[in-house]
Amino acid sequence: xxxxxxxxxxxxISSRAxxxxxxxxxxxxxxDDRAYMQLQLQRLDEPAAPGVAFSLxxxxxxxxxxxxxxxxxxxxxxxxxxxxxxxxxSAKHYGLPIQRGVFTRGAPPxxxxxxxxxxxxxxxxxxxxRAALQAGFPAAQVYPHAPRASDAHPHEVRIAFDGxxxxxxxxxxxxxxxxxxxxxxxxxxxxxxxxxxxxxxxxLLQALHRLQQEGTxxxxxxxxxxxxxxxPAHERAIRTLMxxxxxxxxxxxxxxxxxxxxxxxxEPDFFFDDQTRHVHSAAEHVPxxxxxxxxxxS
Length: 298
Description:
By secondary structure, the protein is α/β, with parallel strands linked by helices. It is about 40% helix and about 20% strand. The protein contains 14 helices and twelve strands. The strands form two sheets. It has a ten-stranded mixed β-sheet with strand order 5-4-1-6-7-12-11-8-9-10, sandwiched between helices. The protein has a two-stranded antiparallel sheet with strand order 2-3.
C-alpha cells in the first residue's frame, strides 16, 4: 500500500527528547496525569525550550526543500492529546515543520512505529526503547540532561555510532564478554574478511546514506564510527562497512579509551552506544542515547 511516508527518512520522537519538559515531567511522575495536563495547558502559549535531540531534528528537516520532502518527523509520545497541543505549538515557534503526532496518554506508543515506517525512535522511556528494538526498529533512550549540540556546524548533520551491538551485531561482543580481550582480538583477526551481521542501527545508517546521496545544497551528513575496538580488530569493522557499500567519514578505534572527550571534538548532533558507561561518558559533552540491545547493553 502506498504511503506518503514511503521513501522518506522517518524519525519518531517523544516530547521529552525534542523539548525540555523535565519540570513538567516531575509532575507527571508523581502519578497525577490531570495535574500534568493542567500544567501543560497553563503553559500552552509558552514555547518549551529545545531538548537534547532538537538539533538533530532541526537539521534533518532542512533536507526538505521545494523539490522533495526527504525527511518526516513525527511526535510519538506518552503525552495526552491536550499536552500535545503545546508540543505542536512549540514546534511551530521554532519553525519545525512537524505535522504528525501520536499521543497515547501513558500507554506504550512504540506499537505505532510500524505504520509510521520509522527509521529511528528516540525516547526518554527505556521500556519503550527496549520494546521498539525488540520489534526491529532502531531506537535509543535519550539522556535529557546531556548538553545540547554545538552550533558550529549549521550545514552538517553529525551523527556518531558505536560499532558492536549498534551498527553491527553483538557477535564479537559476546566473545569479549565471555572469553576476554585476547580471545576477542584473535576471533576478529581470524574473521577479518567475513562481514559482521548487521546490528539494530544498520537500517538507520543505510537510510542516512541514501539521504546523503540524494543531497541538497543546504545540508550534508557527516558520520563517525566511535568504537572501543583497536588494531587488529579494526579491519573487520572497516571491511563490513565496505561490504555494505556504506562509507563513514571518520573512524575512531579507541581501544577502550573513554569516548566522551573524543566526541566533544567531533561535535555530533547525536551519539548512539549500547553500553551505559560509554553513554555516560559521552553525555558529559554531547547529546547521547543508550541503545538497549546486545549482550552488554540490554
